[in-house]
Design goal:
Blueprint (H helix, E strand, L loop, with lengths): L6 E4 L7 H11 L4 E3 L23 H19 L5 E4 L4 H6 L7 H8 L6 E6 L2 E5 L9 H4 L2 H17 L7 E5 L14 H15 L3 E6 L1 H7 L4 E4 L2 H11 L5 E5 L4 E5 L16 H20 L3
Parallel strand pairs: 1-2, 1-3, 3-10, 5-8, 6-7, 6-8
Antiparallel strand pairs: 4-5, 4-9, 9-10
Helix pairs in contact: 1-10, 6-7
Length: 299
């Protein structure tokens, strides 16, 4: 019988709904191990006892969340775990705790020495990745470089092929500007940056098309994976089409990392209202990817 994947579940910000949804995921996948503030196998019910009872972003919550993340990274990089599923953290709490990372993706990229991680989202047959991550909208045009777009295309193609079994996935690439620039009428990024990146991908035998107008691309859904240029361009589609079931992945890491596609929900934490669907789906996807990787390594 195949060995069960070694999965880690971090509790996220302990003042949010993280502990509740982590407990539900642990029940659904008993072979997973939870990580509280730095402790493997932490008792979810007691992990937060020393923290403030108020709900909302605070330094203590941010520090506790980061302690769990650091422990998870240490175990994965040390070969003691195959995947980590991270419960939601508060970017404001991280800042209050003096942490320099705006999110999970940037933290794992730093500790894994990955120069260009790619944020991606999966829900059923929908797969969307981002060429940029947590960037202010006014800075997006400068962040959308030829290298960033090509990396997103390459990592998306590899994930769909290796993790989702798509023999030759079709990658549709969004433009940055309205109507994908309309031949330079509304911006030159499609001509100078995005189009050349797509050509670079094609030279590497990747089935990439575009730049496509983003507003109509997601309505057609005639692709295996889409690459959006910035956070809300991709996330509006993902959350509109798969609000409860979407899963966040980080592409490019030396281990599997997934998370639910929602935030800390401080306003409902501890009130028995948290929906663990996305968290359970995140663990399910991590489990499936690890099993697929293990099976493919046998051949």
């Amino acid at each position: 019988m195949p060995k069960a994947p070694r999965l880690l579940i971090t509790l996220g910000d302990p003042l949010g709904i993280g502990p509740e949804i982590a407990a539900a995921a642990k029940t659904a996948f008993p072979h997973a191990k939870t990580i509280g503030p730095g402790a493997l196998g932490a008792d979810i019910e007691t992990a937060c006892e020393a923290l403030p009872k108020r709900r909302g972003p605070c330094a203590e919550g941010g520090a506790a969340a980061m302690a769990a993340l650091r422990k998870a990274a240490e175990l994965c990089l040390g070969g003691e775990a195959d995947a980590v599923v991270t419960a939601p953290i508060s970017k404001e709490a991280l800042k209050l705790a003096g942490e320099p990372f705006p999110g999970h993706t940037e933290f794992f990229a730093k500790v894994c020495a990955v120069r260009r991680p790619v944020m991606a989202f999966s829900a059923g047959d929908l797969f969307v990745s981002l060429a940029t991550i947590h960037v202010a909208l006014k800075r997006v045009p400068l962040a959308v470089t030829r290298e960033a777009v090509l990396t997103a295309i390459e990592r998306t193609e590899a994930a769909l092929r290796e993790w989702f079994g798509k023999a030759r996935p079709h990658i549709a690439v969004c433009g940055l500007n309205p109507h994908a620039g309309e031949n330079g009428l509304f911006g030159k990024e499609e001509i100078k940056v995005i189009g050349p990146a797509i050509e670079d991908a094609r030279k590497k035998n990747i089935d990439a098309t575009g730049p496509h107008p983003a507003d109509s691309l997601f309505a057609k859904r005639d692709f295996d994976g889409a690459v959006a240029m910035y956070h809300d361009q991709g996330l509006v589609a993902v959350k509109a089409l798969a609000w409860k079931t979407a899963v966040n992945l980080t592409l490019g890491l030396p281990f599997v990392r997934t998370s639910p596609d929602h935030g800390t929900a401080f306003d409902i934490a501890g009130r028995g209202k948290a929906d663990a669907t996305s968290m359970i789906e995140a663990v399910r996807l991590a489990d499936r990817i690890v099993r697929r990787k293990a099976a493919s390594s046998l051949f």
